Structure formats: structure tokens, C-alpha cells
Known about the structure:
Mean pLDDT is 87; it is low at 1-27. This protein is mainly beta. 6% of the residues lie in helices and 47% in strands. The protein has one domain (5-274). The protein contains two helices and 20 strands. Strands 4, 6, 7, 10, 11, 12, 16, 17, 19 and 20 form a ten-stranded mixed sheet that branches. It has a four-stranded antiparallel sheet with strand order 3-5-9-8, with no helix packed on it. Strands 13, 14, 15 and 18 form a four-stranded antiparallel sheet that branches.
Amino acid sequence: MRIERSDLLRAGGLALALVVGGAAVLQAHDFWVVPQLFRVPQGWAVQVAGQTGMNFPESLSAIERGRVARAELVSSDSRVPVEKSFRSGSSLMMEARPDAAGQWWVAVALETRPIRMSASQFESYLEHDGVWDVLEEWRSSSGSTADSVDERYTKYAKALVQVGEGGPEAYGRRVGHPIEFVPLEDPFSLHPGDRFRARLLWRGEPLANHVVFAGRAGAGEGPTSHARTDSEGVVEFPVFVSGPWYLKAIHMAEDPDDPEVEYRSDWATLTFRVPPADGGE
């Protein structure tokens, strides 16, 4: 299944205007890995697009190859490094050839980057990206009177593909990102109208009462919905149409060990595809 044009309509994500060094204006975007095929014939290379943008799964610009800190395929019991990458239009394409049939995660981590923004921009960022607990703390603290805020952020993305027929499942395996979603049921078994559950982990432990966004291709601007994880880090969303979907979460906290920044944030996205109701591709 190649992602059709109808699957590439605008949906999900947020733009954030940031002032860096008081001069240049940048935008912080969500980062997804979007497979060209969610079901890959055995013997074929798995090819994914690294997409950075505001409207899932479209990309505004290709990230530089040097920004990728780690990219790999992860099965139930093995790992294959992604050794081929190239720019194609506004996407960074990445390829790797799995050595066995079964489910494989495509897992990508970007390099950590620093950013500076004004206090008002920081508040807007927290408001629009759902980092509401930090926003509440920020507004009630003396930090809200600061002229600027320094932050370091890292983005992690993963997507699930099926290679060949059969083989071991991997949907429940962690890939090892500091923050990541782990599905509690096989996304390939979903049907439109089902509910999808995943556990959000932070450093291997469930992240409770945390805001998670869900979005889909073709939904228009902004995520489809949001919810908070329960005490076990589990979040649940209805997946009411077929096609590509994503989950997104941001963990942010003060970083007392880094005197150069006030906050450290880690972003996680999970991309999967809900098959059509008729079971076709």
C-alpha cells in the first residue's frame, strides 16, 4: 500500500514561531516517520519518509542527514541499522533491508538541539502543544516574568511495518527511546470503529496523567483529539477511519543538571495504519 494523495491531506501538528538569538525566526514542527508501504513484500527494502511539518503526514522541508542521531529497524529479536538516506523533495528518505519476515519498527532519533524563545512565545508553545501542566507551573512561578527561555529538545519517531507474510510480532516491543509509545494491541488487526490503546513510557516507566494527541491523514488542520494517560500510562483513542494515524506526546521538565537551559523536552510520535474495513490495502 502506497500512501495515496487522499492520505496526504492536511492534518495534525502545530506551528511555533520562535525567536533565536533575538534575530532569526524559526518554526518547531512535529517529526514523523511515514512508511511508503506499511506492508512490505519480503525481500524488498523498507523505505520511510522522515517528515517534519504541521500537517500530518506532509513535510515542509527535508531535515538534514546529519540531524539523524540513530535510525534502525527493530524486530522482535534483532536490529538492522538504516544505512541509506537521501533527500527527495521536502522529505528525508531512509531505507533498510530487513533480514526476515514479521513486524518491524522503524525507529529514528534526531540530535538534541538548543533553542531560545521569548517568554510569551514559550507560553504560546506550551498552550498549543498541550504541555499544559508545565504551563500552569510556569504561570504561577516567577519564571513567567523572564525575558527569554532556553530549552533543549530531542525528537523521537517510530512506525510499524509488516514485512512479508507471518513472522513474529513486534508491536509490543520497546525500541529504547527515552520516551515512546508501545501499542497494547496489534495495529494491523484494527478496523475502522475500533479503539486503539497504547502505553506511553518515559525512561521505561509508565507516564501517568500525560496529554497525548491523536491525528490522521485527511482530518484537516490540528490533531483529531487528545486525551490523558491513566495511572498505568495507557491512553485510548477511537480510530474511526482507515489510513495513516499518529500519536504524539511531549515530555518537558526543568533541567537542573544543565545550567545553560531552563527546560529539557523530549518529543515522541508513533505512526501506524488502520487497514480498510474490507481488509484490502
